[in-house]
Fold these 4 entries.
Entry 1:
Amino acid sequence: MKVAKDEDRGEFQQLDLEFHLSIAASSKNEVLAELLCHICGALQELIRKSLLLSNGMELACKQHWKILEALKQRNPGGARKAIRAHLTTFQC
């Protein structure tokens, strides 16, 4: 995988944030959606820090894909497992 340029990183950060906010909004869980809106700044900081890992973007993309696939398959157990793995990977 090529090394991301600074502008790629900026775009990735925005798309990563939008992914998380979209998942929360599509959950139809108003509390979750509202919570993510309130902690948006902290979430952006975590995303920024995840890019300090040499493979942060690639890993986040792979994990996002697994989350999305489980949701598309209406597999709550698979989605839960993929989300927990993602959170564990990028916790600071």
Note: The longest helix spans residues 6-26.
Entry 2:
Amino acid sequence: MAVHDADFSDVTALAIDETSRARGHDYVTLAADAEQRRVVFVTAGRDATTIASLGLDLAAHKSLPEQIESVSIERLSSGQDRAAKAFEQLTVELVAAATP
């Protein structure tokens, strides 16, 4: 199936992580369907625009922000804030301790 034909209308839980793609400070953000264990979104960067882009991409694939019931995300300070702004009615699960 081509990516542009993907249907994510059944996605209700997301797992989001960001990682360095090479030595240095080039990051990618990845979002996966936490229940079906499939990647639904990957983009360069790790700022607030990456989560906004995730919301737009999910909508383009028949998944609306209001159907997302939970998000597991590793970063407390910036990650939780970005997710909360993009998906207002979700429950954010923090999977790691707060970073100092």
Note: The longest helix spans residues 48-60.
Entry 3:
Amino acid sequence: MAITVPIAVQLAVGSFNATSTSNQVAWSIEVETRESTTWGSGAFEQYVPSLRTLDVAIGGYNDYAAGAWDEYQRTAQGTPQIVTLAPDTAAVATLSVMANGLMPAATNFDASTINATIVGGVVFPPMAEGQVTRASGTNITATTTTTPVNLGSIVATQHVVAAVHVFTYSGTGTLIFQLQSSATSGGSYANRGTAGAAISAAGAQWITATGLAVPGEPFWRLNVTASASPVANVLASIAIFTP
């Protein structure tokens, strides 16, 4: 699978908004296979998908200025990154593509690569397609909820993931993000999975809920609990993923 897009997108890498400093991005997944033949046959062999490698190649502009993309990637060497690709407006309920754990591979933006992630014995690439639930146009300054998005109900074999990018953080206190679901957009919401760790600085967070079975609750959002007086610019997306 490959996704190649022009610059009319919002590209978030960890705490860095790379939208204005990148000129292209390409996503590709390479799937290895392994033999899975279960009976003897001279004319039959069965192969199944095995480990997958996700590559995200980002084209950008080297300007060597403090706070620029090349400097962010240089300082992020060896640190796994969360990446989100969304439309340039990043409006709520628009499509987003999220990936977790990508390692910067070169300071010239060539690629960021990661091996497959193993969750519950199931191997799958740390990538999901979901919807934007919080656009980065306005800051979070108090306890709130993100806009509900209709992703469908989840079964116990699926995972719910949220990618949260905090581009800037000032003020005092912390923010805690918690996945929630409901039967209706304006209905009562229940917490799902474990909340993310408290955030008190710019960064990114990947929140996962597994082993759930909540049929009839297609609407998902993030509850945001603020302590003291934080000021945070956040882009967040939610997806249901089937391994």
Note: The chain has one domain: 2-35+49-241.
Entry 4:
Amino acid sequence: MLAGRQGASGYIVPSEFRSLHAGDRVEVTYDRADQESFKYVAKHVRRVEPPAGAASMRLRRVLTSVGGAFAGFTLCWVAWGKATPGDFFANGNPLLAPTLVGALLIGGALGAFAHGRKGAIVIALLAAAALLFWVLVPDGWWAHPLRPT
């Protein structure tokens, strides 16, 4: 932020000099220097700081997105496992991969746009439940004998 008094030449004489760095965001108030031309002079320059907590908000959005994607993928995996007759997961169904990717994307989008603290808590609980599924449930849980026809 530059502050100072206007000098005789029409330019601001800074009372305290502060440097700007590449990428700094500033707000500038201009004053028309000459009524006959389109020459403007900066009257006031103020550094615009990012809002407090902006980085933590972005991190929370990324984490809830990842948690939502993980929970969606796991829920889809469980649904395919429940629908599997026999001992070959999804029986080679060609829809397995697209539905898993779709569940991953939908879960990630829902996680990214979860509103407020309550939404983040719900996504965290779903992700924790999904993690417990992958840790506690044994491999091959979905295998069961064919149903008699």
Note: The CA atoms of residues 4 and 14 lie 4 Å apart.
